[in-house]
Amino acid sequence: MSRAMYLLIGISTLACCCGALGAETVGLSSPGLPPSQFHANGVLAEDWGTLTVTLTGDGLAPGEQRLEAVALENVVPAARWSADFGQIRLQVTAYKAPVYPQGMDVLEVQLEETGGEPRSVTLNLQPSAQLGVGLSTARLGNRVVLSIPLETQRFLETRDWGYVIDTTPMPGWAKPEGDCDPGFANIRAGMGGIPIRYRFRVEKGGKVQVVLGLCESFYGQAGIRPLLCEVEGARPLLVDPVARWGQHKPGALLFTASDDDADGWVTITIRPVPGARDRNPILNVVWVFPTNVRLNLNKVISGALNDQARYYVDVGGKKDQPLLLTEGLRFPLELAAGEKRTLTFYVACAGGQAVVPELTAWTPESLFRAAREVWTGWAQR
């Protein structure tokens, strides 16, 4: 039997238990990769748990639903689930992309207003597992099981500032010596090498002064836990807190930051240094000042200029906060009459991880091209 015939048969038999409203389950596959399952009622099943797609809003009652196996561009096997919620039609298309090494499932969620009136709706992704949710990823432990591409992140409800990645808060971890802000006693730690990242709302294209406060209390020897500090619009800085200030000694780094991409945010990231003995980055305090404030770093360290800061963050302390305004994965949307809108998500497959949007070149377009090329080549073998 030819590969082309195998592909046609595979597409036609992916759906199981077909009925009036389509299939009960559709498999997602790619040559050489473990399969996933998409179930009726908008449920994607993976080895780490399930992810359910739902829609809420005034007057939105779920109506007829249908799940079917389709071939995108007559080549890529996919599951397509559609449901009517009053005047909103929800359609979810899922396929497996050949991302090394275990593959990755791609969810394309399309909402269409069909009643001829503007509508406010909220798209919800409900994982069965308790995940640590940040702006761009949701993690089960250190495993990235869900990614939110940059194009989709703008629909999330956010605060004016907060941490983007859900790292580990450790209040009272540091033992700062000398006159310093109480925030130096607390940290966030990127256990397992996860970067620490915060975002701050600013004027689009604007400039601010960012001060990062650091205090290393675990190591008394230099060279064990260096840190790479990245502030948007400024040159990255490699710092070893023990070598620069000493163990238990509070220190501060000043950056002139700018909103280089004009998205209304300034992002700061503390990364581990490859090859370092300890690759768990830490951060104690962040200050964001207007550019017209004259800064003396000793006064900043002491906390004397806190009232002049636009943002003050006791990292890992009681008033620390996530950038996301609400828990979970909620995407409030305003749809114009007749409007269609598509949101894309990446989901980890069996044994693998989803890519981190800020660290990958993959896009929704390139992922589909890769899937199409793999299946086209497979059919021609």
State mean pLDDT (0 to 100 scale): 92
Domain module count: 2
Strand order of the largest sheet: 6-7-8-9-27-13-12-11
- Which regions have little confidence, pLDDT < 50, spanning 5+ residues? 1-20
Distance between the termini: 11 Å
Query: Tell me, what's the shape?
Result: elongated
Annotation field: number of helices: 5
Give Rg in angstroms: 24 Å
Strand content: 35-45%
Share in helix = 10-25%
Structural class, from secondary structure content? mainly beta
Characterize the largest beta sheet: strand count, sense, and whether it forms a barrel. Answer: 8 strands, antiparallel
Which keywords apply here?
mainly beta; Jelly Rolls; signal; single chain; elongated; 381 residues; 41% strand; 2 domains; 27 strands; seven-stranded antiparallel beta sheet; eight-stranded antiparallel beta sheet
Q: Overview of this structure, please?
A:
This protein has two domains: 25-158 and 326-380, no CATH class; 161-314, Sandwich (Jelly Rolls). The protein has five helices and 27 strands. The longest helix has 17 residues, at 364-380. Residues 1-20 have low confidence and may be disordered. It is mainly β and 381 residues long. Helix 1 packs across helix 5 (364-380). It has an eight-stranded antiparallel beta sheet. Keywords: Signal. Residues 1-22 form the signal peptide.
